[in-house]
What we know:
Mean pLDDT: 77
Number of helices: 8
Low-confidence stretches: 267-293
Shape: elongated
Distance between the termini: 59 Å
Order of helices and strands: EEEHEEHHEHHHHHEEEEE
Strand content: 25-35%
Amino acid sequence: xxxxxxxxxxxxxxxxxxxxxxxxxxxxxxxxxxxxxxxxxxxxxxxxxxxxxxxxxxxxxxxxxxxxxxxxxxxxxxxxxxxxxxxxxxxxxxxxxxxxxxxxxxxxxxxxxxxxxxxxxxxxxxxxxxxxxxxxxxxxxxxxxxxxxxxxxxxxxxxxxxxxxxxxxxxxxxxxxxxxxxxxxxxxxxxxxxxxxxxxxxxxxxxxxxxxxxxxxxxxxxxxxxxxxxxxxxxxxxxxxxxxxxxxxxxxxxxxxxxxxxxxxxxxxxxxxxxxxxxxxxxxxxxxxxxxxxxxxxxxxxxxxxxxxxxxxxxxxxxxxxxxxxxxxxxxxxxxxxxxxxxxxxxxxxxxxxxxxxxxxxxxxxxxxxxxxxxxxxxxxxxxxxxxxxxxxxxxxxxxxxxxxxxxxxxxxxxxxxxxxxxxxxxxxx
Length: 430
């Protein structure tokens, strides 16, 4: 079975008046990256925690949250600071003699002075704590792994369904490739008869032309390779384990299969002006819907998008006086998005269409802050005064057209017979 890269697990364990709560969650990552957040008093367990997690998790960015609560009464002890009490008595005696006051200090009063008595936390037995923490960790890891397995099952089912769909397309291409060749020969013979009228057709020349065309459109090697890659991916999914790298490598190889589909689309464009010759296909093919646009032609549609973004800031600080500081910050943000779309003619002779869009946005902010800080006795005084300036600007251009002369060369907007919309807008504010 395969496991998802995302998962979640949580467990609470309470023993001997001590409670541990452990939560784990993960997202996709090429390697194992563990981030542990826990109380500082448990930091000496970090290496043991990481070693335990590696028994259950091999890849992913994992966040671990550990909380600890101690309800025992022995975790704190009272400490008497004799030196602090002696210092208090010494200075109280000096004050009595210096100002002629009665020294009426009593034990109950002295005990209430700060730091005479303090509460100190007692360190717990590490072995006892680890036994409870390990149990919470293993239970949380068990839930975590189960959640990854359940999601992995759903991912495996989805991948298998998509791979089977790709195999159906490969079967369809292999079964209809001979029909394309037969249709080409029929049309070639009709054209030659039309040109030669009553003259006899040279069968040898027809065979030569058909042979050249058959060699040009032969896709046996490509379909075999694509089928092999699909079957290898299915086997990896069914075999389970860590298949991420294997599937990724196979996916790159299968990219050649996409190039194959584009080449078949180009052939159908040459033969039918962008429409598939449905007359030479099997109308009883269950996986083909006549009212759906030819998927091979869709691969040649253009959908280009380019985005550029810039974010930057700079600041200066200057101490005018020890108690007065000035800071100036300049922030700039810029984004530019361009898109170029072109849709070829559909199977039913519909018009081709295209559009171009250009959007630019910029924001400039200038912040100035003057800070006053002064300590007067036991009091701290802080005052700030600031100024902020912001300038925003945006530009937008959109143009669309349809009825282009062809689907391959004259696809710029200037060639469109019908221009449906040309909009532009520019705006700035401060």
